[in-house]
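Section: Multi-chain targets

For targets with more than one molecule, the full set of components is provided together so that the structure can be written out for the assembly as a whole rather than chain by chain. Components appear in the order listed by the source. The example entry contains two components.
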Amino acid sequence: EAGVTQFPSHSVIEKGQTVTLRCDPISGHDNLYWYRRVMGKEIKFLLHFVKESKQDESGMPNNRFLAERTGGTYSTLKVQPAELEDSGVYFCASSQGAGASGMTYNEQFFGPGTRLTVL
Amino acid sequence: LAKTTQPISMDSYEGQEVNITCSHNNIATNDYITWYQQFPSQGPRFIIQGYKTKVTNEVASLFIPADRKSSTLSLPRVSLSDTAVYYCLVGLPYNYGQNFVFGPGTRLSVLP
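Its structure, encoded as tokens over all components, is:
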């Protein structure tokens, strides 16, 4: 079974440009999460989708960030316009619905991340 | 949110048992303890989760004392491929949203 995939793996853009990151979750996973690690800092939660709905977007840093999840499948995270401080690694994760398959823990499966560099 | 404290780094040799302790003095009654592993250029990967006493799976063991104010991840007979960053997370079992808090983690280096 394919894991969580993210595209691109690396992106280098100039300040003020727009970048769109894509995440394809594991098939059948209702929950999709975005995280990021900026330089020298810890991994931080950005937002959480349940199917196509935003369950929690309390971690989104500002309105330059827009996340969508079309039809409850893949998700995109757009940064417009990008700023220098947006540089970092953006991770996506997915998990099954709560209580699925009798699991007591809704394990999150992470993708490899997209390394974004804003010059 | 329960704050966690772990050693920043640890060194070990192949074949040794490695124990990484995490302190979480203000853990709440319903909080679980979860450990993730992260290799360079990869996303974090779930290792083990527990609530109290001892949990063991094919990868590791997790020891949690009765007061639950700390926990110890035990990796038996480590190999070079166990070199990674290990994160201790404390929170509700599904760890949604802002409750899913990664600290700086422990950077484990396994030497030949």
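Chain B is about 0% helix and 45% strand.
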